[in-house]
Amino acid sequence: MAAAGWPVCAQSLKGVILDMCGVLYDSGDGDGVAIPGSIEAVQRLKRSDLQLRFCTNETQASRDRFVAKLQRLGFDISVKEVFSPAPAAVSVLKERGLRPHLLVYDGLLPEFEGLDQTNPNCVVIGDAAEKFSYENLNDAFRVLIGLDKPLLFSLGQGRYYKETDGLKLDVGVYMKALEYACDVKAQVIGKPSPTFFQSVLNDMGIQPHEALMIGDDLVNDVGGAQSCGMMGVQVRTGKYRASDERHSSVRADGTEDNLSRAVDLLLHHRGQ
Amino acid sequence: MAAAGWPVCAQSLKGVILDMCGVLYDSGDGDGVAIPGSIEAVQRLKRSDLQLRFCTNETQASRDRFVAKLQRLGFDISVKEVFSPAPAAVSVLKERGLRPHLLVYDGLLPEFEGLDQTNPNCVVIGDAAEKFSYENLNDAFRVLIGLDKPLLFSLGQGRYYKETDGLKLDVGVYMKALEYACDVKAQVIGKPSPTFFQSVLNDMGIQPHEALMIGDDLVNDVGGAQSCGMMGVQVRTGKYRASDERHSSVRADGTEDNLSRAVDLLLHHRGQ
Question: What is the ipTM of this complex?
Answer without folding.
Answer: 0.87
